[in-house]
Amino acid sequence: MAVLDIFRVMSREQIGTVGLALLSLITSIVTFVPFTPEIHASGIDASWMLALNQAVAQSLRFGTDIIFTFDPYAAIYSQSYHPATDSMMLWGSLYLALSYWFALIWLMRGVQGYWLIVLCGVLSGMMSCIT
After folding, report:
1. pLDDT tens across 35-47, in order?
2. Residues sharing a CB contact under 8 Å with residue 48, sequence separation 6 or more, in sequence order
3. Into how many domains does the chain fold?
4. Which of 46, 69, 105, 130 has its CA 20 to 30 A from that of 19?
5. Which domain holds residue 18?
């Protein structure tokens, strides 16, 4: 009941602004958080993903025990599944999505609402590039 009271006090413009903010939040979460991470495939391209996830699972130190250009958060970039790094990948991706959303909202303040819709369309188009 309290939520409906809030919407009664808000003007149509404010409700539209909140709706656009929620639309951009949902779009950024769906784009960045891998809800269906990939299982490792065979081949040399997937081997580094498995190796880095296994290094994190075995608590190896990056820079001394394992030397590679990525860090323990490589699972966020690769979106590859490993039982030991799955929660770290999901929480890290959610943090990335929320950071992107906060930056987007901060930079879009005072701008017409249709530009936010255009940026949501571009961001949702990136889903095929990211995955």
Report:
1. 887 776 666 777 8
2. 68, 70
3. 1
4. 130
5. 2-130
